[in-house]
Design goal:
CATH architecture of the domain at 44-115: 2-Layer Sandwich
Shape: rod-shaped
Radius of gyration: 26 Å
Structural class: alpha+beta
Largest sheet: 5 strands, mixed
Number of strands: 5
Oligomer: single chain
CATH topology of the domain at 44-115: Trypsin Inhibitor V, Chain A
CATH class of the domain at 44-115: Alpha Beta
Number of helices: 2
Length: 116
């Protein structure tokens, strides 16, 4: 009867464990470029500017049918964000802000505007 080769078994176990760990490592994904129009998909707009919100002079329905870039231009000085952009739901907050508009964009055009 021969004695077990502990060094060989430990080395084999270490190699097997390292191989399994490497297989589970997350693979880096290349960053996806944003859709044409507004480059930033984070929170858009601010609490307001001294010039005010140009879209307040129009109704919210006036934004529907505009291109994403046209809507972003009209919303300068306004608090706003994307709710759904080309089928991708965007993160939002649960706080209610009646001045903030949440817009949905599909096919490059605004399809819905909500407040809150």
């Amino acid at each position: 009867m021969t004695a077990p080769n502990w060094k060989g078994m430990a080395l084999t176990g270490a190699v097997a464990m390292a191989t399994m760990m490497a297989g589970c490592a997350a693979q880096p994904q290349p960053p996806q470029p944003p859709a044409a129009g507004v480059a930033d998909t984070g929170p858009q707009g601010g609490r307001g500017t001294p010039e005010g919100c140009q879209a307040d002079k129009l109704g919210d329905n006036a934004l529907i049918g505009k291109t994403e870039a046209e809507a972003a231009k009209l919303l300068e000085g306004c608090a706003w964000r994307f709710g759904n952009r080309e089928g991708q739901h965007m993160p939002g907050t649960m706080d209610y802000n009646p001045q903030r508009r949440t817009i949905d964009v599909m096919g490059g055009k605004v399809t819905a505007v909500r407040r809150g």
